[in-house]
From TrEMBL, chain A:
Pathway: tRNA modification; 5-methoxycarbonylmethyl-2-thiouridine-tRNA biosynthesis
Family: Belongs to the ELP6 family.
Source organism of the structure: Dimargaris cristalligena
A Pfam family this chain is assigned to: ELP6
Annotated region (Disordered), positions in chain: 47-67
Protein name per the record: Uncharacterized protein
From TrEMBL, chain B:
Taxonomic lineage: Eukaryota, Fungi, Fungi incertae sedis, Zoopagomycota, Kickxellomycotina
Region (Disordered): 173-198, 378-414
Cell location: Cytoplasm; Nucleus
Biased composition (Low complexity): 389-406
Main location as per UniProt: cytoplasm
Family: Belongs to the ELP4 family.
Record-linked Gene3D superfamilies: P-loop containing nucleotide triphosphate hydrolases
Metabolic or biological pathway: tRNA modification; 5-methoxycarbonylmethyl-2-thiouridine-tRNA biosynthesis
Name of this protein: Elongator complex protein 4
Domain of life where this protein originates: Eukaryota
Gene Ontology annotations of biological process type: tRNA wobble uridine modification
GO cellular component: cytoplasm; elongator holoenzyme complex; transcription elongation factor complex
Amino acid sequence: MGFPTLSTALGFGPPYHLPTQGTLLITDTLTSDASFLIHHIVTNALQTPPPAPHSPESPPSAGTMPTTAAMGVAKPRVIMVGLAHIFNHYLLISRKLGLNLLPQREQRQYIYIDGVSLTSPFAKHRRFHPADRSSQNPTAPDYYCPPFDPPTDCSHHATAYTSSQRYLTDLLHIIVGFMDIGGVGVGTGGSGDQSTPSPSLIFDDIAVLWNLGMHPSAILEFLQACKFHVESRNGSLTLLAHTDRCLSGQAQKADDEGPLATGGYEYFVKSLMYLASYILQAESLPSGHSRDVHGQLLHALRGNSGNMMERPNARSSCLASN
Amino acid sequence: MSSFRKRTAAIQPKLPAGAKLSPHNGQVLVSSGIPSLDDLLGGGLPVGSVVLVLSDRYTDYSNILLRYFVAQGLASGHQLHLASADMDPQKIIQRAPSWTTTSPTPNTSADSPAVQKTTEALDKLKIAWRYQNLPTGDQDTARRTTGTTPFCEKFDLMVPVKPRIIDQATVSYTDLTQPRNTSEDANEDGNDKDRNQGITDDYEALFAELAHAIEDGGFSSLAPAAKAPAERNILRIGIHDLASPYWQAQSDESCARFLHALRGLLRFSFGVCMITLPAHLYQTESERPGAVRRWEQLCDAVVELESFNGSRNTKATAGGLDCNGFFYIHKQPQLNSLVPSSSKLVTVSGNQLSANNLAFKQKRHKFYIETFYLPPEGGVSERRVEPRSSSSSSAAGKTSKTASSGRACSSLDF
């Protein structure tokens, strides 16, 4: 059930643990790790069925869950693009939080796309493909991001952009393909419109794409497309990015143009914030370290005219419950 | 028979030598060679992780950490892979500290236990039958009979490790000090250089070497089951001064790409990597470098050494201190767990967990990390010359009052 106190603190309301039709941006720093929010969102999305907006005849009560599944009401589906951690990491943590991802994966409710093993351009030197053992290994991912092949001539701006764009377009096709796989429920078996679930697309650490040297404009266009596809299917998009203060001064290849030049990391993060409708900002306490409190969580809703709520103890309370 | 049975070693999966399971999350851990560092990182370095050590300025303490890491690998019988672009990587292992206790070598374990058992049986004092099968207090015999190595040896920095031990160990090197071969040179070199053919990037060449060492050395858990060795060993990778000016990169992102690829490689292998990185080279006048922070995000654990000799702020005051510098932990290893295991297991109070700072000390024989404290004001020697005043202040209540008043009188009564 994730962290119950965090669910109430986030204020999405008890049945809606994730904002539907919204983009959530989670930012953290090196000292205040916000990956617990990702696990919280995954467990909540998979454990509580969201009420179907197009079928008012199904009452959202807890006792009728198997019948609603038999009726073919959309179940949630989580598509995780793990750029920072392998599947085993998510599996073990979600097990501690009370959710077994393996059966969820068999039912195609949880889809994991591995972005760790092969995404780096250097990974082409590996001889053993991780997919070789996938037949015996139940924890093998559903899909591997292939090695990103950067252009050899990096000085040329346009080639860097086109190669990243080509790579990300391929990745987008894969993700959209996973969104449209029908027949989640065991009982339904059909491929009708109603059984296609509303997807939650999660990128654990979108900054990795930037670190690997992909062009920021290409990444932003890719995310824009992801957002469009997700929202047209009544789903949500969640991104995790790092916003250490020292990172913001870094301009990529364009030092003379200042931090706000296109290509700088600060511009990238600000564009992500512009894309998002909800922002969760995890940061360490400005007053210094404390024994029980790891940091504070800032919650901003962009639609509601900058309604900022400060919840200093959110993280400490949820970590205590673990 | 009761259903509760004591877990014996036979049921548990066989761990590689010198490894243990974390009591917090069951992760396989190996030692860094420094017990206090192991403790701060939650028991040890998790297998499959990358540990980044940000070097100190002007001094060379970070390489002591790397030498300890290498020496512990030698002591546990692990395989080693060392890489450097600044110096010959063989120098790292040649200056590794030796350990005081003897590690089991195959020829001693073959004959000595039988001899020892007979002598032990003769002069054994029978206290109680139930203690008979328990291991004796002597560490050495217990180890020799069970065949396991201790998790962390005791090292002596004054004595370098013997060349005989280095010869026996399986060590491979990636020497990046040579200027990169042009394509025709690589063709002439022939046999084992051919996998690096045409690679002009030092990071890429190193990754190709590491992938080769892990996948062909039997350390990958992705290898086909037929090829997997019966007994797993651990590969320790030590990289000296990554991203120093000697590293030739094709693009600015090479280091980040290398670290991300390394994470993907190590997660599926029995390997652990320690990297020292001269972060101060990237530091500007006022703030921490953004490029280094990106690399820190791509590693699993980040520690930093700041020696008093190298930092501007503490240089003036460091004269009376008996430690050599500050030790920071920026990131704890968090593999397969939500909270770092050090949050529950650590005994030295660190700066992440409480407000205390950590300091490292290098004595003649050992290197260790402990909580930083300031010495008594005025120094220790000044305190010691007045035993009377200290005893009077420690005496309780009325007597101390009378003593002080008496002393005050005596000073007036001149």
